[in-house]
Amino acid sequence: MNTITNFWNHFQQINFVFLHLNEIPKDELKTHFDILVEILHQYNKHLDLIIKNKKNGVELIITANGNPYLFKEVEFLVRHAPVVERWKITAFLQPETNLSKYENGTDKPLEYYGISLRISDMYFIPLENPNKPTDLGIKVLLKNYIVHKDNPRLREAVYIQIEHLIGEKSFADELAFIEINQLKSVYFKDECVIELYNLKFLIDSYFKKSKFL
After folding, report:
1. How many C-beta atoms lie closer than 10 Å to residue 73's C-beta?
2. Could you say which of 37, 136, 139, 186 has the lowest number of CB atoms within 10 Å?
3. Is 187 helix (H, G, I), strand (E, B) or coil?
4. pTM of the model
């Protein structure tokens, strides 16, 4: 419990720094952020945190990076979170609810180890396992797969995008397998190609249907 107490005590002491992101030098922000992560890792070295600006405050997200074996650790930590004015403290990455930037193609790309991926440029094909009808998989189709296919970080980058899009728990619990390939025009003729930003809708529909099978 001491490591949990230490983390939340430190967060309460320095939280005001992140409420003034535009007024604090980036180097100073990074220093405070790195120290906060270091103290979090004293509790569990595999957890991470994300800080997001909101209209009426700031959100602190504690994430297990999609690892279901760490979900209880995240929940336990957040359960002991203090109430801090203007802060929302959240367990896990939550599903993206505002899809308009993807629909309009105005989303910013993820830049990750030389890889550039925009959700609005990504598509997928649903896949099923005949031996396990309740398992849902997807084949993710990228416009620039050929460019990045030899980059060992490609799968990790795709996972990050999907995790931020559909939420951490959905990513871990509801996608059984993921394939990655080049987007080709033939897929639009012969396959059920869907925009990646509609993935959560398909997952929810699939598992709702599965309950009645």
Report:
1. 17
2. 186
3. helix
4. 0.84
